[in-house]
Amino acid sequence: MVYKPSFGDRLFDYINYILLTLLMLSTFYPLYYVFVVSLSSIGEIAKHGSLMFFPRGFTLEAYQSVIANNYILKGFRNTVFYVVLGTSINMIMTILAAYALSRKWLMGRKVFMIIIVITMFFSGGLIPTFIVIQKLHLYNTIWALMLPGAMSAFNMIMMRTYFQGIPESLEESARIDGAHDFQILFRIILPVSMPIIAVMILFYAVGHWNSWFSASIYLQNRELFPLQLILREILIQGRISDMGGDTSNVAHQVAKNLKYATIIVSTVPILLVYPFIQKYFVKGVLLGSLKE
Amino acid sequence: MQGAVSELDPVPSVVPSAGRSKLQRVKRELNRGKYVYLMLLPVMLYYLIFQYLPMVGIVISFQNYAPGLGFFESKWVGFKHFIDFFNGYYFWRLIKNTLLLNFWLLVFGFPAPILLALLLNEVRSALFKRTVQTVTYIPHFISMVVIVGMIKDFVSSDGLINQVRDLLGKESIAFLQLPEFFRTIYVTSDIWQSIGWSSIIYFAALSAVNPDLYEASEMDGAGRYRKIWHITLPAIQPTIVILLILTIGNLLSSGFEKILLLYQPLTYETSDVISTYVYRKGIQDSSFSFASAVGLFNTVVNFLLLIIANRISRKISESSLW
Q1: ABC transmembrane type-1 domain location, by residue (chain A) (predicted)?
Q2: A26/B195 touch (CB, cutoff 8 Å), yes or no
């Protein structure tokens, strides 16, 4: 049977394509605009106003100022360190828990699972957690950023679902040869779980890269500040004194292309990773977690 | 019982003999799982210290907590802080703001990704589909600080929005200083941020639909809308219901970080919600016990909402969390 589109069908298609294109443009233009302004010169931005489609008076001076700013550089270094250390802790914890809780024969498995799931719906809340961190003398140390979120129950369940889908026959012969669980995890389970591991690393790494709130309540020492806290000062609180601006109108425009350059510098690294992992997103990875 | 255990047993060498006592069986099971328990050790320690210890700490809601003391050493005051909060000047404003903000988010923000998934499902060109997906996922990866920084800049008096208003011959408005615009800005930007990413889960559900179903209904002369209504929507209905329950169960605590970055004292009238109030009282003013009590109230209401939503959904749609 040959498919023949009716007039109504074609009209639907046209409207559909127009709507989706508009959605794409409204998502993309603000980001593109930030990029364009970051490459424009101060005087030209002031002359042409905000609506721009190409860099006006192309210049890299905003980026030079960003790179010359010590706080941004230090924040960048701190953030990279937090991402690497934090994601490593997250992955170790998540993999260990997911492996353990995917062993159907494990005595007490249900109890452990319940202990974890409860925390998805009920928690001590901001203030008691804050007090616990203080009492443990973690305040103003990097461990206040690394430990309280050492594992996400949601991600663990996703990974457990994936592990449960691995056929048991794969590990059987290793068991007969006397392999213990650590060997089975590292030699058999992990090598076939690379898609879910890639997605998890991305989720955790993005989380650490973008995190600012714990740092804002637990850190006082500026030397430890992650990039996002420095960004908050520049973008939200408008504190540009560190960057050598004053409060006249020209200085405000300086802040504008500088602001946008800091946005680009802080956002592009994470966006570069994302296309490599995108293909795994839809592959039922997220769906599995819902069935729990 | 022993038979059932041995059936699950993938190790053929261990066969339980009939006469063994329960204690011996437990011992054997513990021994068998010894490495797995070792793996769980750091996980359970983490949960004990960083999840359950704070839960114990909730007791300070019923005390006048003095920072130098332990969780159980301060003076007990019963429900004093709760009563203070309920009778306080800001109570109704906080309730109203929290509910209204989340209500509009639910009304506009929740259906948006479903609509996107339905529309994209009708697109035949795989390239176009992938492009739309890739572009709409991007905002999810941008940090909240940057998003709010962009919002603030775009709606500022010389920002993008006011430039466009200027072109249309309209006066510039200081959007972020006016309480009446807060919810609109919040909800609109939230949809912008999350529409693409939230639709992934619906795509996943749609990819499980058997294409034969569409073909068969075409044979029967079903048009586009009937196919959407009778095949596509029923396919994602369980996913919609479960996400709706989860959203409702998270209603009072969502968006905390974004509001904290976006609001200012001028707009507290519409923007101050329970969680931001807890933050100001607890972290900024160090009224630990009072703030903890308000936070506990928030958690309990959230939990009740979750239970109610789950119960209703189990009755009318047969999909539920438990």
Answers
A1: 76-277
A2: no
